[in-house]
Amino acid sequence: MRGQVAVEYLIIVGLVLMFLLPIWSYTTTVQQVSNEQLALAYADTTVNRIVDAVNIVAGQGPPARINVMVQIPNGVISTNLSGKTAQIRVRVGTGSTDVVAVANVNMTGIIPLESGTYTLQIDALMNGANITVVE
What are the backbone dihedrals phi and psi of residue 111, each rounded to the nearest 5 degrees, phi first? Predict the structure, then answer.
Protein backbone atom coordinates (compact mmCIF):
# COMPACT_ATOMS: atom_id res chain seq x y z
CA MET A 1 0.00 0.00 0.00
CA ARG A 2 2.79 2.45 0.91
CA GLY A 3 4.65 1.68 -2.28
CA GLN A 4 1.59 2.41 -4.39
CA VAL A 5 1.06 5.79 -2.64
CA ALA A 6 4.70 6.71 -3.19
CA VAL A 7 4.49 5.83 -6.88
CA GLU A 8 1.28 7.85 -7.24
CA TYR A 9 2.94 10.87 -5.60
CA LEU A 10 5.93 10.53 -7.92
CA ILE A 11 3.61 10.42 -10.93
CA ILE A 12 1.73 13.51 -9.73
CA VAL A 13 4.97 15.40 -9.06
CA GLY A 14 6.29 14.35 -12.48
CA LEU A 15 3.13 15.57 -14.22
CA VAL A 16 3.26 18.90 -12.37
CA LEU A 17 6.93 19.35 -13.32
CA MET A 18 6.17 18.47 -16.96
CA PHE A 19 3.56 21.24 -16.91
CA LEU A 20 5.62 23.86 -15.03
CA LEU A 21 9.03 23.47 -16.72
CA PRO A 22 7.91 24.77 -20.14
CA ILE A 23 6.18 27.73 -18.49
CA TRP A 24 9.29 28.51 -16.45
CA SER A 25 11.47 28.24 -19.54
CA TYR A 26 9.18 30.56 -21.50
CA THR A 27 9.05 33.21 -18.76
CA THR A 28 12.84 33.11 -18.38
CA THR A 29 13.28 33.65 -22.12
CA VAL A 30 10.75 36.50 -22.17
CA GLN A 31 12.47 38.17 -19.21
CA GLN A 32 15.88 37.94 -20.89
CA VAL A 33 14.56 39.43 -24.15
CA SER A 34 12.81 42.21 -22.23
CA ASN A 35 16.02 43.07 -20.35
CA GLU A 36 17.94 43.21 -23.63
CA GLN A 37 15.31 45.47 -25.23
CA LEU A 38 15.35 47.74 -22.18
CA ALA A 39 19.15 47.99 -22.30
CA LEU A 40 19.02 48.87 -26.00
CA ALA A 41 16.34 51.51 -25.35
CA TYR A 42 18.44 53.10 -22.59
CA ALA A 43 21.52 53.08 -24.83
CA ASP A 44 19.56 54.65 -27.69
CA THR A 45 18.16 57.36 -25.42
CA THR A 46 21.63 58.04 -24.02
CA VAL A 47 23.39 58.54 -27.36
CA ASN A 48 20.50 60.62 -28.70
CA ARG A 49 20.50 62.88 -25.63
CA ILE A 50 24.24 63.37 -25.95
CA VAL A 51 24.05 64.19 -29.66
CA ASP A 52 21.09 66.54 -29.19
CA ALA A 53 22.92 68.43 -26.44
CA VAL A 54 26.11 68.59 -28.53
CA ASN A 55 24.16 70.02 -31.45
CA ILE A 56 22.56 72.64 -29.18
CA VAL A 57 25.81 73.87 -27.60
CA ALA A 58 27.65 73.76 -30.92
CA GLY A 59 24.97 75.97 -32.44
CA GLN A 60 25.40 78.48 -29.62
CA GLY A 61 29.20 78.37 -29.68
CA PRO A 62 31.66 78.90 -26.83
CA PRO A 63 31.19 79.31 -23.85
CA ALA A 64 27.86 77.45 -24.03
CA ARG A 65 27.44 74.57 -21.60
CA ILE A 66 24.68 72.02 -20.93
CA ASN A 67 24.34 69.34 -18.29
CA VAL A 68 22.52 66.19 -19.42
CA MET A 69 21.43 63.25 -17.27
CA VAL A 70 21.82 59.86 -18.94
CA GLN A 71 21.17 56.27 -17.92
CA ILE A 72 23.88 53.75 -18.81
CA PRO A 73 22.28 50.27 -18.99
CA ASN A 74 23.59 46.92 -17.81
CA GLY A 75 25.55 44.94 -20.36
CA VAL A 76 27.55 47.79 -21.90
CA ILE A 77 30.72 46.38 -23.46
CA SER A 78 32.26 49.62 -24.75
CA THR A 79 31.54 53.27 -25.41
CA ASN A 80 33.12 55.53 -27.98
CA LEU A 81 33.06 59.18 -28.99
CA SER A 82 34.83 59.44 -32.31
CA GLY A 83 34.51 62.43 -34.56
CA LYS A 84 30.81 63.09 -34.99
CA THR A 85 29.72 59.62 -33.78
CA ALA A 86 28.56 58.59 -30.30
CA GLN A 87 28.47 54.80 -29.89
CA ILE A 88 27.50 52.36 -27.14
CA ARG A 89 28.06 48.63 -27.68
CA VAL A 90 25.58 46.50 -25.70
CA ARG A 91 25.69 42.75 -25.03
CA VAL A 92 22.62 40.97 -26.41
CA GLY A 93 22.17 37.22 -26.37
CA THR A 94 25.44 35.63 -27.40
CA GLY A 95 26.67 38.68 -29.32
CA SER A 96 26.58 42.44 -29.18
CA THR A 97 24.99 45.34 -31.01
CA ASP A 98 26.03 48.94 -31.55
CA VAL A 99 23.76 51.86 -30.79
CA VAL A 100 24.96 54.92 -32.71
CA ALA A 101 23.97 58.57 -33.14
CA VAL A 102 25.68 61.17 -35.31
CA ALA A 103 26.13 64.83 -34.34
CA ASN A 104 26.61 67.85 -36.55
CA VAL A 105 30.08 68.58 -35.09
CA ASN A 106 33.06 66.65 -33.71
CA MET A 107 32.91 65.45 -30.11
CA THR A 108 35.61 64.64 -27.59
CA GLY A 109 35.33 63.11 -24.14
CA ILE A 110 33.98 59.94 -22.62
CA ILE A 111 30.76 58.06 -22.01
CA PRO A 112 30.93 56.00 -18.79
CA LEU A 113 31.01 52.18 -19.01
CA GLU A 114 29.52 51.31 -15.63
CA SER A 115 25.73 51.07 -15.45
CA GLY A 116 23.95 53.84 -13.59
CA THR A 117 22.71 57.40 -13.87
CA TYR A 118 25.27 60.05 -14.77
CA THR A 119 25.29 63.78 -15.34
CA LEU A 120 27.36 64.73 -18.37
CA GLN A 121 28.63 68.26 -18.88
CA ILE A 122 28.81 69.25 -22.53
CA ASP A 123 30.89 72.33 -23.36
CA ALA A 124 31.00 74.07 -26.73
CA LEU A 125 34.43 74.35 -28.32
CA MET A 126 35.50 76.34 -31.35
CA ASN A 127 35.35 73.23 -33.54
CA GLY A 128 32.92 70.95 -31.69
CA ALA A 129 32.04 69.92 -28.15
CA ASN A 130 33.71 68.32 -25.14
CA ILE A 131 31.88 65.83 -22.90
CA THR A 132 32.87 65.20 -19.28
CA VAL A 133 31.24 63.34 -16.38
CA VAL A 134 30.14 65.63 -13.54
CA GLU A 135 31.11 64.24 -10.14
Answer: -115, 130
